[in-house]
Amino acid sequence: NAGVTQTPKFQVLKTGQSMTLQCAQDMNHNSMYWYRQDPGMGLRLIYYSASEGTTDKGEVPNGYNVSRLNKREFSLRLESAAPSQTSVYFCASKGENSYNEQFFGPGTRLTVL
Amino acid sequence: AQTVTQSQPEMSVQEAETVTLSCTYDTSESDYYLFWYKQPPSRQMILVIRQEAYKQQNATENRFSVNFQKAAKSFSLKISDSQLGDAAMYFCAYRDSGGSNYKLTFGKGTLLTVNP
Fold this sequence. Notes:
Oligomer: heterodimer
Number of helices of chain A: 0
Order of helices and strands of chain B: EEEEEEEEEEEE
Number of helices of chain B: 0
Largest sheet of chain A: 7 strands, mixed
Order of helices and strands of chain A: EEEEEEEEEEE
Number of strands of chain B: 12
Number of strands of chain A: 11
Distance between the termini of chain A: 36 Å
């Protein structure tokens, strides 16, 4: 069981470039999430997907789009990267036990110059 | 909206001693879940311990325990017999019991240093 995997681990972009962050989970979870983590801050929710085919905005969705490709995969796209999007991005999926705890991927460190 | 506050940006502890990290939260809900996550330098978010609000008994996981005070909206983490591997950023997180998204709200974190 790999759990939640993310690619790439590191990325440097120039302002205005686009890219897609990939996330996959092998735990058969329905719900998946994208968070960003900035220095001195906790994680903030960008988008989430409660099930295959559905997506909803979180706390900080501006400048991002998402795709729930299938039950396993949930991608985050930056169409025109800005320096304010320099951050560490985490993908998570939600378990189905009573606590519904979230399991996190290893994160992607993105720098926008 | 729910908020989570961790008032200690940094803490330090001597190896083998005990340290307590503070967390307070604000909610109008009566049922909810609270979590402590550990983030070592590897960046991986690791679930340390969890507590359901309607359970009065404080959660315990080996050397980690919580002091959950529902009326005071306080959820502190106690680490006993601290080890060098406990050095990390610790995040307190809150989640409503229901809702369509099970969104986690995080505090800003406490950086724990363990001194040998």
